[in-house]
Write a sequence for this structure.
């Protein structure tokens, strides 16, 4: 039953055909059954939390990314340096779900400290794609995506700094939503890059995403960047008429100069999706975007995110936080703790971050990256005066095989592989929706809209989902 | 120009050690990163663009400056789950002043 959509599970609960205890047990059984192969979880709960609530989510099982603080429950960030850390307070998103009666099934594997996109760098091992276990599910919200795609839970919570919800959702054939920056409190989220980090939702339908968002959004005094409350329920606005709504796609992002057959099929699927959007009454237009700026997206992201990460993780010393390795003096303790606690990828990112923040490099590297961010965000906001959203394929390829999945920086650059970062640069709400299959693997389209207009993005995505026909999809493994 | 000595210095400042393979990968990544950033430096008039550090202007009001009231949010017994050594109500940490 945990493979159903929330409305269907709710009905079974309300009709007395199943109890929340039985649902929890079913989720736990599935989580354990799939764990050896797919490795979605760092921790699978052994006891159900009991909270009385009349909310729609009461009794509904879900999974939470393991970089979100849960008082008394191991929270590792999938890093050796925090492998024994037990938070002493609850993240706001977890508290809100608990108060709504949603039932935590487990804490999910991520790329170490959320700084990767391959699903291969968590300290407890790689996460496999439920559609093909020889392939990656991407990251960093790897286990959150896999647990939903496997039907273990109807929804999960992830975090997204560059594409960490939307890309694994795309590779896993599910829906992934990154809300507007500040729409969901970051209190209790392990910070990666604070100006980009966003807590969001993964599920098997946009309606389910909206149900969860209606619970977790809202202002939080504990997060000074959280937005004011808005007087709107997303789930009540999903079926609003979209005829006349205007979308654009970026011409330069759809170039396929290499003639790559897989990319060709992804682009063909995208144009068919655009045709379907037009059938719904959307106006969809092609727009040309400065290619130099598009090619600057990832370099700027790399510099900004590494710089912020270096600073944010400086508290992991083994003294205040982190799994302490004993040493002869304070410096020796810190060096041993950080050397053993961080993987190679994390160290490389910190060195890059530290380098760009050195006084002599700040202007040419860090500030130039922030200037590029300004140019891209300004251009997007200018386009959003004429259009309600940007639509593009979510990814430039299907989920990669493990021998192709890497977090090493490469020389090759594909605009389509990096455009989701624009959503984080501008804090724009952005959603990936399953749109078909290539080589038996799911592919996806993405809609990104104006900042603070989450309701409209979900409304447009819901209409498109309705005509694409993949609502409620669970991987074939189940 | 980035070389092994410079990277070694940065790693020391960051309080960790790296092995030869890690340095080798990092040097390659720096080569790519710096090439990419050179590309950004050549964007027309980039130096005159005002950088941004957040996605949009934050709507901060008085509530972002909380009253300076003492809030002891962490119960000592809760905290002990992450503590290796303690004595009475005090946590034992390594000597931090030599």
């Amino acid at each position: 039953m945990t493979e159903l959509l929330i409305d269907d599970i709710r009905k079974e609960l309300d009709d007395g055909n199943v109890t929340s205890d039985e649902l929890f047990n079913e989720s736990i059984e599935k989580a354990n059954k799939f764990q050896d192969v797919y490795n979605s979880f760092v921790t699978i709960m052994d006891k159900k939390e009991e909270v009385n609530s009349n909310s729609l989510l009461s009794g509904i099982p879900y999974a939470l990314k393991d970089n979100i603080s849960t008082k008394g429950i191991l929270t590792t960030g999938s890093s050796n340096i925090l492998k024994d850390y037990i938070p002493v307070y609850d993240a706001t998103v977890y508290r809100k779900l608990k108060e709504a009666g949603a039932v935590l099934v487990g804490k999910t594997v991520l790329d170490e400290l959320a700084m990767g996109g391959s699903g291969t760098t968590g300290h407890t091992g790689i996460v496999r794609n439920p559609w093909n276990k020889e392939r990656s599910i991407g990251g960093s919200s790897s286990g959150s995506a896999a647990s939903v795609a496997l039907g273990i839970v109807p929804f999960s919570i992830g975090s997204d700094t560059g594409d960490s919800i939307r890309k694994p959702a795309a590779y896993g054939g599910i829906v992934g939503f990154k809300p507007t920056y500040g729409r969901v409190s970051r209190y209790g989220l392990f910070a990666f890059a604070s100006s980009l980090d966003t807590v969001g939702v993964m599920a098997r339908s946009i309606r389910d995403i909206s149900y969860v968002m209606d619970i977790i959004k809202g202002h939080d005094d504990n997060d000074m960047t959280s937005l004011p409350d808005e007087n709107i329920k997303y789930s009540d606005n999903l079926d609003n008429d979209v005829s006349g709504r205007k979308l654009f796609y970026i011409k330069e992002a759809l170039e396929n100069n290499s003639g790559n057959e897989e990319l060709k099929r992804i682009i063909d699927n995208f144009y068919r999706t655009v045709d379907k959007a037009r059938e719904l009454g959307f106006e969809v237009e092609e727009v040309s975007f400065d290619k130099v700026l598009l090619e600057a997206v990832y370099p700027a992201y790399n510099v900004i995110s590494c710089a912020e990460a270096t600073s944010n993780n400086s508290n992991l010393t083994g003294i205040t936080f982190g799994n302490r390795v004993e040493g002869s003096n304070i410096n020796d303790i810190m060096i041993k703790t950080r050397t053993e606690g961080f993987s190679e990828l994390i160290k490389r990112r910190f060195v890059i971050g530290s380098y760009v923040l050195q006084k002599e490099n700040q202007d040419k590297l860090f500030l130039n990256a922030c200037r590029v961010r300004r140019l891209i965000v300004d251009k997007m906001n200018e386009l959003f005066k004429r259009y309600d959203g940007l639509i593009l394929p979510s990814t430039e390829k299907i989920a990669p095989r493990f021998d192709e999945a890497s977090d090493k920086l490469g020389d090759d650059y594909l605009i389509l592989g990096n455009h989701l970062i624009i959503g984080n640069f501008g804090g724009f709400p952005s959603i990936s929706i399953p749109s078909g299959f290539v080589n038996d693997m799911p592919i996806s389209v993405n809609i990104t809209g104006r900042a603070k207009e989450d309701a409209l993005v979900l409304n447009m995505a819901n209409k498109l989902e309705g005509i694409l026909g993949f609502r409620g999809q669970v991987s074939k493994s189940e | 120009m980035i070389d092994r000595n410079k990277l070694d210095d940065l790693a020391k400042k960051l309080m960790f050690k790296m092995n030869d393979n890690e340095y080798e990968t990092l040097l390659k990544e720096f080569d790519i990163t710096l090439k990419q950033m050179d590309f950004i430096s050549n964007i027309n008039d980039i130096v005159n663009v005002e950088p941004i550090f957040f996605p949009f202007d934050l709507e901060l009001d008085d509530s972002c400056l909380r009253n300076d009231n003492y809030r002891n949010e962490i119960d000592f017994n809760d905290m002990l789950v992450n503590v290796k050594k303690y004595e009475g109500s005090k946590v034992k940490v390594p000597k931090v002043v030599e």
